[in-house]
Amino acid sequence: MNPYDAARNLADSIKASDEYKNFKTAKEKVYSIPESKKMLDNLQEKVMELQMMSMQGEEVSDEQINSVQKLQDIAVLDENIKKYFDSEMKLEQLMNEVSRIISEVVEV
């Protein structure tokens, strides 16, 4: 089997995993509720702004970090957003583990 076919099979396996299915369901739920979607979008936008600042070498103040943390604390009070974050974290763990396994085998 060539690596491209194996990658497609791996992608299909991930899409069939509970981690992916739970994430997809949680995301659809959050996006179906306008208030939840707006809150999540706002939080993700603020996180992205701080990441971009950091990547560009700009200093991110404690006040900016605390502001985003407060937004996150409020967002997770929404049970649907909390489930979204939890399922996203589990999917990321799966993806990281798969990446780690591949890296070990090919000694990257």
Q: Could you provide a short overview of the structure?
A:
The protein has 108 residues and is an all-alpha fold.
Task: Give the tags.
single chain, 108 residues, mainly alpha
Low-confidence stretches: none
Calculate the terminal CA-CA distance, rounded to whole Å.
21 Å
Structural class: mainly alpha
What is the H-and-E element order? HHHHH
Shape descriptor: flat
Number of helices: 5
Describe the sheet with the most strands. none
Mean pLDDT across residues: 95
How big is the Rg? Answer: 17 Å
How much helix, percentage-wise, in residues? Answer: over 70%
Walk me through what this model shows.
By secondary structure, the chain is mostly helical. The protein contains five helices and no strands. The protein has helices at 3-15, 18-31, 34-55, 62-75, 79-106. Helix 2 packs antiparallel against helix 5 (79-106) and helix 3 (34-55) runs antiparallel to helix 4. The relative contact order is 0.13.
Topology overview:
Elements: H1 3-15, H2 18-31, H3 34-55, H4 62-75, H5 79-106
Helix pairs in contact: 2-5, 3-4
